[in-house]
Fold this protein.
Amino acid sequence: MHRELASLDAAKRVSIRSRNWRGSLAEGDVIHELDVERWAFWSPESAHPAVWHTRWISGMPEPAPAEVPGGAIPAAHRRRMSSLTRLAVQIAIETAGDCKPDFLIFCSQHGDLTRLREMLNDISSGVELSPTTFSQSVHNASAGLFTIISRSTAPVSALAAGSSTFAAGWLEAEGFLVTHPEARVLLLTYDEPLPTEYANYSSQAPCAYAVGLLLRCAAAQSGVALRPAPAKQDDSLPLAPLFLAWMLSRDDSLHASADGQGWVWTRTAK
């Protein structure tokens, strides 16, 4: 089982600065900084985002036989979950730790299409649908289960925005933190390979992963700026693990494109 959890101390904390995504900053515009206070990651290929990235850019790796983690989930809930839901809830629990986030953002480009395909097969075969299966197939199912298990009463946003889903989730977090500067936001992004019938509808590599970020407003006046950029060829890898691998590196900037939209993260020196 491959997963990595990090709590960044003051010396290593990464401040994330996000700018008005519609364009460059104008005079008088406010720059909002976010800290990545904690992060968690899982993929079947590696325990670390950088290794995951290296393996995928060097060529599509062979499917890795790794059991999706779920040890933090009570058994009564875990046995009813699909592998994708189990992955999302597990990484959300690891990311939150002892913190009670004030806002929850669960992002998945495709959602639980594996479970949806099973339901469609049942319908075509004349089999009555299970109410439990249906209730756990909706896009906010993972978020709802997390709130039950963690006893959270925080507001929830469940997002899908194509290949730019992670960027959309980031902007959602920023919007909340601008008006709640003392709050914490849990941003979770997760997906799995599409079922065979739908694989040709995605241009991205068939990755299974989950990335969790615990975000807050930053006190420092330095960090990483997020802004729109001219789009290049769309990246074949999903944005969330690309971002995390870059965040933990020493590279100055990350330029990524998704669905014809360019995004650039740039470190600024203190």
Observations:
- Residues 165-179 form the longest helix (15 residues).
- Residues 3-268 form a domain with the Peroxisomal Thiolase; Chain A, domain 1 fold (CATH 3.40.47).
- The chain has a mean pLDDT of 83.
- The chain has one domain: 3-268.
